[in-house]
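Quick check before the chapter quiz. The format below is the same one you will see on the exam, so make sure you can read both the input and the output lines.
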Amino acid sequence: MLTRFCLYGFLKNQQYFEPVFYLILLHEKGLSYTMLGALVGFGGICVNILEVPSGALADLYGRKKCMIISFSSYILSFLLYSFVSIVWMLFVAMFLFSIGEAFRTGTHKAMIFDWLRSQGRLKEKTRIYGFTRSWSKIGSSVSAVIGLVFMLSWRAYNPNAEYSHIFLLCILPYFIGIINFLGYPKELGRELKNVSLIDIVQHLFLTLKDAVKIPELKRLFIESMSFEGIFKTIKDYIQPIANQMVLGIPIFLAFTDKDQKTTIVVYSIYFVLSIFASFASRYSYIISKKSGGEDSGCRVIWWTTLVLFCAMAPLLYFELYIFAIVTFICFHMLQNFWRPMLLSRFDAHSKPETSATILSLESQAKSLFTVLAAPLIGFMIDHGPGVFHGASFCSLCIYCFFPKGPGGVQRPSG
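Here is the expected output.
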């Protein structure tokens, strides 16, 4: 099963468009930064609406079925992104992509933790989840190489070709992913018979009640919303930063096409990000051990991240783009050290029968931040100081909010 879990992560990250997604929307689809922010915010709203019901469906109706629905919805969104340029159709594509995100996020993690529980290996959850996540990042690095080869060869073959056709490449690995899910054992699917709408609503209500009543869970939700929300909101703004950077790199003087320069730089950055992220995910458990536990490890990562945010703003202001990107890579690594520890903490405070719903709630929390922040940050880029100035301010406010510092959840004794 560990092989199948890793294969899922590898295939899920075959999103060859990711390093140039914002650039395609800005340059080929004709969106402004404000409209781009609105589209991303709309996606966050959709995920928020669908996230928790999808987790309840996964817990009761069947986790394997929900994963198949997720990948099927992704495929439909890829088709739309490839062929449409009308703004309202792009919102439809984002809606389908959000269905894929909502039905996937907490469901597969719950399946991994269920399998570890059945194997008596729950103490290894940070290490095992970090290992499977590292294969997701290896998938991202392979995706960056394939995407770069396609982008360069596609434009060389047809100078007027649109880069948006790269979305079509993603369909095959996602179809293979559906075949992979069909081989998951039935017990991991948790399929219950005669599940009614009342059962789903009741299950959802009880899980939400736990999330609000249990102090440890409530604090973890706030922590996830802030850290992951900031990361999710700003992570793809590396694309326009790289677009500015290529103008001053002598090695690219041989390339007359700026799009070609940008493509090489952006895909190279994503390749490096993925390699470092794979390393960070795989060895996250070492940070946990050295720091005295997941809570302490997360606290160390929070403080380090704040320092990086404070450094990023002046680097961008003085247009030191190379140093800004190096700082961004460090931030990306820290997020991948942090993520396995966070999910391990969530599992420690969750009931097995509600874990998919709890992890869907966690994903919803960070999406809620994205809904609020994405349009604002898009507006700030168009009319204000920029993305990382706002992120630095948000991080500082969050640190002030936590009296013990983020990562300060104390496990109950006994």
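If your answer matched, good. The chain is about 80% helix and 0% strand.
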